[in-house]
Amino acid sequence: MTEQGKPSLRARVVRHIMVPLGLTWLAGTLVALSVASYFTAQAFDRALLDDAYSVAANVRSGDDTLQLALSPREVNTVLFDQVESLFFAVRRIDGALIAGEPWLQTSTPPAAANHVFVDTEYRSTKLRAVTLRINKPAAFLVVVAQTTQSRTSLLEQLLLYSIGPQILLLVLLAMWLRRAIGSDLRPLSELQMAVDQRDAYDLTPVPVSATTRDVERLAIALNALLERVGQSVRAQREFAGNVAHELRTPLAGIGALAEYGLAQQDPQAWREQLAGIARSQARASHLVDQLLALALAAEAKAGIRLQEVALEEIVRDAVLRFLSRADAAGIDLGARGLEQSTHVLGDPTLIEGIVNNLLDNALRYGRAGGSEPTAITVAISQTTSGTALSVIDNGPGISAEVHAHLMGRWAQGEAGQLLGQGVGLGLPIVAQYAGLMQARLELKPGPQGRGLTASVVFANIAASP
């Protein structure tokens, strides 16, 4: 069905209300008319029976004879009606006519009753007749028939005066409902116009004057969607800007190293330049990985679903992955607190990213000076505020004054600046991942005031009732 052929929401709502209401009204009217017709017929029949009794009261019994003690004038007075025509006949039990209309036939009442009502016709005129049987002092039958014009007229008037006003009320109700529903649905039309006229790059909340809770919820959901889309767009723009800005330096360095190497004739110079190119490529690759991690964190804000995660399994796998790198660098990498199962509320991918970044930072910047061996420990422990995942090193450490500074992007400590490694995204990534899981990143000095302890503290899982 085309858009032009589809009914409006207002028309559908009005139809869904008025059609059942109209059918219910019609059924109720038919029932009411049937009841009214029944009791009207009962009233007319009772009056007809009273006329029959009036005629029967004036039948006199003589010596084996029956006669009507009413003159024609008196009969007309007894059976007078301004609208209807009445006819009567008095007959013996055997059907012999005593008085009245010869054509008016009788219907013998059943044995259990002394009268019976029948519908009949005379000269194409419908009649309602009653046959009354009188047993004392002598048995005879009285038949009284009446035209049905009053009955039909009364039913027609009843139908007109009951259905006409109700139809008018239904029309007025439909008009009022259409107007009221249109007024309630106007915010939807305004929302549609606001969205249709909105520029594709405009992701600000749509103003809606909601008059109902449903429209308000729709507006809230739409604006929440625009906010999520805006966050995604901002993350993409930031990622693109960061990549364009930060990759310019390593790529330019790679190009300069390659040009210098091509200008040299000494193979040793070529080797040195190739080694420099490899280091720059590794740095650029690490930068791209961290930028992608930041973009993932921004995207995960809207759709992350926290679950119970076995923390010790993720830590164990991460330590095994970094063990060869630590051995190659002569660093003692160990773990503590993995003996027992520890569950936290989080996301496995984000927790893995946290461990990877903390270990990468520790292996880069946490090396002890002098001849002292470097030791890095990944520990899981319980604190008063929750479960702590810590990476501890015995390196130069970081002063408390620069802890907050290092939480910002592109911020590096002295060790990173001296070593020329990293771009200052590791700790911001960890802090952002932790925030997505309602955890927090804490930086403090290592044991005995040496080195650095970077801990992510997860809230305790609420016990089941």
Q: What does the model show?
A:
By secondary structure, this protein is an alpha+beta fold. It has 3 domains: 11-155, Beta-Lactamase, CATH 3.30.450; 199-303, Helix Hairpins; 305-458, Heat Shock Protein 90 (2-Layer Sandwich), CATH 3.30.565.10. It is built from 11 helices and 14 strands. It has helices at 9-56, 72-78, 149-196, 213-246, 248-263, 267-303, 311-328, 348-365, 403-406, 414-419, 426-436; strands spanning 59-61, 66-68, 86-92, 97-100, 115-122, 125-134, 140-147, 307-310, 331-336, 343-346, 374-383, 386-393, 440-445, 452-458. The strands form 4 sheets. It has a 5-stranded antiparallel β-sheet with strand order 4-3-7-6-5, covered by helices on one side. Strands 9-11-12-14-13 form a 5-stranded mixed β-sheet, with helices on one face. Strand 13 (440-445) and strand 14 form a beta hairpin. It is rod-shaped. 20% of the residues are buried. Residues 407-424 have low confidence and may be disordered.
Percent helix range: 40-55%
Low-pLDDT sequence parts: 407-424
- Report the span from N to C terminus: 53 Å
Task: Specify the biggest β-sheet.
Answer: 5 strands, antiparallel
Task: Tell me the total number of β-strands.
Answer: 14
Query: What is the C-alpha radius of gyration, as a whole number of Å?
Result: 51 Å
CATH architecture of the largest domain: 2-Layer Sandwich
Specify the number of helices: 11
Structural class assignment = alpha+beta
Roughly what fraction of the amino acids lie in strands? 15-25%
* Mean pLDDT score: 79
Spatial strand arrangement across the major sheet: 4-3-7-6-5
- Broad shape: rod-shaped
CATH homologous superfamily grouping of the largest domain: Histidine kinase-like ATPase, C-terminal domain
